[in-house]
Recover the amino acids of this structure.
């Protein structure tokens, strides 16, 4: 997934999908943000839209793999594509 596609998926996850379908911007009550600072140091978190999309975002200039997180293994372990 490209950086732009990932950023778009993250931003869309912040809004209620039903509201987006009808053209309304409402907060997504099912979205989740979990800081991963204890695992990777400051600046990264897991995000989910509460349904279909999830990812790891870093704000420290490093890729998740550079922070010790093997996201590809997580996806394979969950039956997804790395």
């Amino acid at each position: 997934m490209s950086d732009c596609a990932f950023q778009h998926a993250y931003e869309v996850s912040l809004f209620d999908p039903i509201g987006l379908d009808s053209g309304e911007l409402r907060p997504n009550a099912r979205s989740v943000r979990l800081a991963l600072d204890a695992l990777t140091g400051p600046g990264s978190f897991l995000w989910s839209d509460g349904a279909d999309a999830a990812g790891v975002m870093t704000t420290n200039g490093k890729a998740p793999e550079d922070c010790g997180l093997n996201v590809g293994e997580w996806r394979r372990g969950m039956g997804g594509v790395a």
In short: Strands lie at 32-35, 44-48, 54-58. The chain has four helices and three strands.
